[in-house]
């Protein structure tokens, strides 16, 4: 078991470094994310980027994972099945992203790892902490690595009357560093820590604005590995690449990126530059 | 398994084309839908249309499927068991249509496929996404094709303060093309995409007003097949047939229709014209 | 299985006609229903009426069914176990009647059929439709007939802003025929139809005021059998018997009656007159 | 099975009479109930009363039942495991007392019977009716007697706009006899009847103020046995003993009492007088 | 079984005394608790304190327990798996701390005991009482000791209109002794008693301000053992040590402490002084 989880961790994090292609946006944001680059609506196009860009994993929902099972297998890009998801058609300040597939489903579909989004701070976070914890327990027993999308969110985070000390620290950081509340080191580090406490192998978190602050995130999650979430497309390639450098400096294991790759005119070009930053100084596994 | 699902897909979509007779209105709208053509309240009358009109499937709830099991079998029209449903006796802006039967029940009743309505955008869409996903997983493992009635609905879709970008695009389309919000390409394509992401074989969606806009729906769901929902009876036969032509031009696999057939004076006449449009250029399977 | 369900259907509906004694009022209304005729609080008294009145079934909750199991068996009156129930101690406009016993429990207690109340139109109707549907599926697989108490109820039925077309038709009928909204043919027929769609063998519904309107109910539920619910005690025997005649004329299979029998001074006398109406023209099975 | 349940019923109701010592107050009211007689906080003290006072059962939660398992066994006082409970730390007009242990747990702990509180009239009574019913079904199949604490409670009971006829009768009784609403015969008898309908062997109910009115309660629950709940400590011993006489006159099987015994200076003295009233005219089993 | 639970109780309470190191704060409060002493974010640092400070147990969530399984085993400090938890990112007056791991998970991770927080008084306390009770039943059957974090909390505790007698006593104590409502002996003793009633082996509770009042807590929980919760760091070492002395005088079995140890400059120094107080007069096990 432990041998197997180690082997699969190495598969999606060769030499401890990860470069993951996120493609669950069709569910989370809908087809409007494909308007920038219409070809991006098609998994075959995306899979080609993943393969030629030497990504260490691709994140999919079960529908695409099933319909393109043989193409994914042929590409040799490890499949990361995203086990929960929600659409933006329903909007509520306190989000809940329900579990849609099981660890068993992931294994049936040939996945090398599973992912799950945790909105700690939402009034439904009890359900998500429970679902995530059960996934980790089951995945652990079956030797499958787990990636937590740790995104603190919800009304509590914006409630200035909140008694929470974490929130008070976050407010100071927000004002001082001109960050959104869910990008402050206090909040991001807390999300990452919850990932560790519940047993995630990797946590995917937002960028906190500087290498110094991101280091606190990495330290708070240690020994769980941290990857930065790509987020919305930046104006320039350089802006994005500079963030990647920052988090690597801070000790991150890499990134999980979608729109900043496949919404661009030349997805492969930026993929290669990202690869160079993450794996450049490493011998290839 | 895969062989079986392929075989059953071919049964309800010969040559990749579908012409499905919907008859779950007794549950969804009640007997008032039968007032236009009182004979339509009787399944034997409907089954005769399905058979002589060469429909590739008939949609029923379990009660009728069970009580007329041998007649359905004799008719050779493939049975599509609708696994959820709700009545219009209870009205709430955020609808929930609960699962009433299992994939196992469908197999016991001799069904060739199963259907399920997903109201993404409702505050209960977490439950429907979960139920639908579990149905797809189970159906996939048992070789049964799944059809998703993908109908985004709920208060969020009408909330102008909503932060969702999809909604902003939909609002522009609504104003420009004089469509209901749940008929805009942005919303319909999102519903269809959720069907793909969750693994549906076919998605049933509303018409979006033009072949161009419907093409975006078809492309967003690819490789899941798209059929147009018939909806309320149009004033003339031509109005309905022109929509059928539009969606076929846009790449749809066909239609799923009820009232536009069996509320008419001559259900068989329009059935034959629809059949000609969908299968006319095809060799029959 | 099918042989068994057929046999049991014949037992509670000899020759397709039903005369059922309802005795779940101790739960639904409490002991106040026994004040009119204090002996009626005792099952032995009731069972004697059922036997001598030649009823084709008696409706009980599990407590009485268990405590008088041998007396019921000796009486040869088929037991119909009522699987759900609620008391009037809790009052809410949107009612929910939870399932209290299983089909398995019914078989253990020697029941020939099971019953369940469905309040379609209540905001909890999703739960009741689900519970009822599961009961029907299980009962069907075990060869047990199912009777649905189909009573549309809830705030939606009284909400004049409701968008439902069924409600608009019901409002017209209400005004024209001086009926309560839940006695209008539109509403009663819808409830009956839901019983058919979900697979009930018999539906128990309210009287709609005339044989003509009740025929629409019977036709909407076909081939599910329809029995009229007895309701509160009418002023005279004749008033009640005239209703029985009306529904039989309309095609009903019979009635399910409680208070109109056992709250009267001479329960046996009226039972015999009801029996004559329902079975008079029939050869006895 | 039936032999076993009969044997156990005889154990807690020798000759059909019951004298039960209630000791679940540590959960329901907390340590403040022990302030009157501080020794009463200790089960060993209570068990000694139960034994020497010749009680026919002692009511405990699982923690005490487990920690004093051998002492309870040695005392020969039959254990009645209380399967649900709630603390007064949380106060809501509509109470819910969740099931905490199973019938199986009760058997593991050596219990001769199980108890459960049902707050009919609370908006959560659907859950309690369901839990209680499942307990009765399971206990019945395992030969374990069930005692229902039938305490109608909740906002509906105080809502003067309530349409329920039971409530109207209760209001008249309240005014006429100067009783709390949940002590009126209409309400208490309804609670008792629900116990019968669901299958309880014994129901524990409040005193209704007179032997005449309590007789209606006993008759409404027949053949389920009725015991009076002791309630808060009365000013004098005589006041309490007079109530005991009243309910025995009315046909009750006995009482279930806690504070009126172990909050008194001499618990054994009053126990003996109660014993004399209940069993005095009987030969001892 | 009983032999095993006895053996494990002795392991975490040698000679009936307990000195437990709490380290679930990363989940409950987040990384901000590590700001005082940044090394405290790392389990290896904490484990070293636990080992050298001769703690009789260390409290962890499953993530850390799994990632440091071999280090924990080598340290010989017994693992206490905390089975539920919540983060302060979500703030609600009525808290719910969901179960995240099972007793089975605890055994897989090599735990010697399990812990669970119960917020009696919260509107969700029904769920927590149920979860805790099931944990105790299962742990008991597998021979694993259970520690209850008994922390009454929620809106009801602050509602001056509350009818609860416990609350009235607590209010008097609050005013007289200048305590927070959840530190009053009435409230703390009630929480402890619930732990006993549900079957906890040890309850962890707040300090009540004096040895006299804490004795009532200890007596109310007897024979369940009581340990004091360390709470936020006191200004001086002496202040904290004086509390430890108080509770030991009152009959407590020891303490469970986190921040008052590992937020200090010299965690080992204070650990030794605590150890001396708790075990000084004992022969070492």
What do you see in this structure?
Chain A has 13 helices and 8 strands. With 285 residues, chain A is α/β, with parallel strands linked by helices. Chain A has an 8-stranded parallel β-barrel, surrounded by 6 helices. The longest helix of chain A has 18 residues. The mean pLDDT of chain A is 95. Chains in contact: A-B, A-E, B-C, C-D, D-E. Chains C and D meet through helix 4 of C and helix 7, helix 8, helix 9 and helix 10 of D.
Tell the overall outline of chain A. Answer: globular
Mean pLDDT rating of chain A: 95
Please work out how many helical segments of chain A DSSP would assign.
13
- Greatest chain-chain interface? A-B, 33 and 45 residues
DSSP strand count of chain A: 8
Strand content of chain A: 5-15%
Structural class of chain A: alpha/beta
Instruction: Walk across the major sheet of chain A and give the strand order.
Output: 1-2-3-4-5-6-7-8
């Amino acid at each position: 078991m432990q041998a197997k989880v180690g082997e699969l961790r190495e598969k999606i994090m060769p030499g401890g470094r990860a470069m993951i292609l996120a493609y669950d946006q069709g569910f989370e944001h809908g087809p409007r994310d494909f308007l920038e680059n219409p070809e991006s609506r098609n998994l075959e196009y995306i899979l080609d980027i993943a393969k030629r860009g030497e990504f260490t994993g691709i994140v999919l929902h079960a529908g695409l994972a099933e319909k393109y099972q043989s193409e994914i297998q042929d590409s040799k890009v490890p499949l990361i099945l995203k086990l929960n998801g929600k659409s933006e058609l329903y909007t509520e300040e306190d989000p809940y992203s329900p579990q849609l597939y099981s660890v068993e489903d992931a294994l049936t579909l040939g996945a090398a790892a599973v992912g799950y989004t945790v909105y700690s701070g939402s009034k439904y976070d009890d359900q998500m902490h429970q679902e995530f914890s059960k996934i980790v327990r089951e995945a652990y027993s079956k030797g499958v690595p787990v990636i937590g999308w740790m995104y603190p969110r919800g009304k509590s985070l914006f409630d200035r009357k909140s008694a929470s000390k974490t929130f008070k620290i976050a407010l100071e950081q927000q004002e001082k560093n001109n960050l959104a509340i869910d990008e402050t080191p206090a909040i991001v580090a807390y999300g990452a820590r919850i990932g560790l406490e519940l047993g995630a192998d990797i946590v995917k978190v937002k960028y906190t604005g500087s290498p110094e602050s991101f280091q606190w995130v990495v330290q708070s999650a240690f020994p769980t590995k941290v990857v930065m979430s790509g987020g919305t497309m930046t104006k320039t390639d350089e802006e994005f690449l500079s963030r990647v450098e920052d988090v690597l400096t801070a000790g991150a294991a890499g990134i999980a990126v979608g729109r900043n790759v496949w919404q661009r005119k030349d997805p492969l070009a930026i993929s290669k530059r990202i690869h160079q930053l993450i794996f450049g100084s490493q011998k290839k596994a």
